[in-house]
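Researcher: Next entry in the queue.
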Amino acid sequence: MQTRDRRTIAESAAAKFAATPPDRLSAINAVVGFDGFIDSIIRVVDRRHSMQPDDFLPVTTITGFADRCAAAAGKSTNLEMHVVERRFGGNGPLLASAMASLGASVTYIGAVGRGDSPTNLHPIYQPLADRCAAVYPVAAAAKTDALEFDDGKLMLGKTESVQAVCWELLKDIVGLDQLRSIFERASTIGIVNWVMLQGVEGIWRGLIDEVLPTLSGETPRKMFVDLCDPAKRTDEDVRRAAGFLTELNAHVNLTLGLNQSEAERMGRVLGVDIYEGPGNQSLGSAMQHAAASIRESLGIACCVVHPREGAAAADANGSAWFEGPFTVKPKISTGAGDHFNGGFALAQDLGLGLDECLAVGCALSGAYVRDAASPARERLIEFLRDLPRSQAS
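Model: Structure for this entry, 393 residues:
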């Protein structure tokens, strides 16, 4: 269990980032994949002041939105969706953007292509390509309507195009030799959004059978996996994915990232009581126990569990908790979890302590939702040094 307080952990993480030269950050070679979405960031109109496009009061809570929908049962209703902006999205691209903005050398492979020419980059992804060392479009980007509220978001995904992404497609477009070369240089591998991409398990199998055993290096590479809300997948699906994670960990030091509800689902599927212990334990203690229980059951290197209020992690050396800088008034919430993941994974690659990795992840996410942009290294350091407390909802 950790013994340092929140301020000490944050200041230590900030000092280590400040002392890290740019060439050390650029020496982090991350390979990330494989989804890609174009996000329409949307506010639902509650009441209009005028017919000017942005002159309205929005529906502020998911409960309020649900009440509006429920009231239409047996009748009908018209809900106006105001598009605040369109930006590149997808769990993989946002994770890649987070790491690249901090100075890592990132290669992205995924569904970031044009609809009429899937192997050519969609223009909306040009800012990502400008940050990354290399980007390989292999399929057309999908689309998401991201309905944002003060207490969360609803992601309405249209996933048809990303279903084309599979191991055979990667070999056809990128080439097996080139894939081996790309992963040979990687110190960190990020694979996210298993829940929406039917081809992820085939990619895991391809890496296990055709790539990872061929790679050199005495120090195991790191891999960060986020399944991304498996609520719609069956228990058998989740159980099968869990088996892949255990198998992958034989080749890489694998970290599984989960939010609290995902951890509860994983615990049920694995038959693990993630809340075992005294009923009056703190949230931090409960989340540390959850992370440790899931890590041990899966036989993986590390597990992270991040509720809204902070994040916990467990590895072979122990566990830690860090209270996050949650805000009730984010400029954007879509991508917050991906930025946490990117910060945590990059801090892991730099060799920071488990509690410091959590601090970096929470700070990167906290700065992102306040700025609506992927923070640079200087912004991360500043945010860690002046870390706000979590706000009550």
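Model: The longest strand covers residues 37-48.
Researcher: Noted, moving on.
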